[in-house]
Amino acid sequence: MKASFKGRYGIDQKGGATTTLAVKAGDVKLKATVTDATFVPGPNLNGLSLALEKPGFFVVDFNVPKQDFRFMFMNTVRFAEKPLNLTYSHSRGDNRTMLDGTLVLDSANKVSANHMLGTGNSKLKYTYVHGGVTTFEPSYDLAKNAWDFSVSRKVYGEDVLKATYQTTSKVLGLEWSRNSKINGNFKILASCNLAEEEKKPKLIAETTWDFEM
Question: What is the pTM of this model?
Fold first, then answer.
């Protein structure tokens, strides 16, 4: 039986740590996630969530303290002889339903759309991969009438460097990630709000390890 352990720690004014344990049983995954609120000031159910996932088909999340379910269903159909990846998600607690679609034009180009039902919140994104190593992702938020930008590049085989910028919030983000079968996976994220007078960066570190049980 395969399992994975993921840790996440935020270094900012609020701090906070998150730990996820995922166990693969056949073609489904069972996940349990806890935060530091689960153990402070003593063991409790705060910050505990459970999930059942079949990759590429469905995800069911259950927030234990809030008694709230979130459902997600995925499917792929053909549109104009191109694969169209569809995702439907619904959160029972806030009664929010999202529709996502990604049309893969070829190995280097794809177009994505996201819409929240019952609102005017919609986003469009275009993804272009240049030479198999550099990815450009401009996106447009129809509700905010604003653009966001992302560019990433593979370096040294296993490493990816990524930069993002949100024009409405003026948040600049930098990310360094590595996907290694030998040394495990890690990700370091730094973000800074350029609109704030005190431009103090926020840091987040993640690590993931896969092992056999």
Answer: 0.84
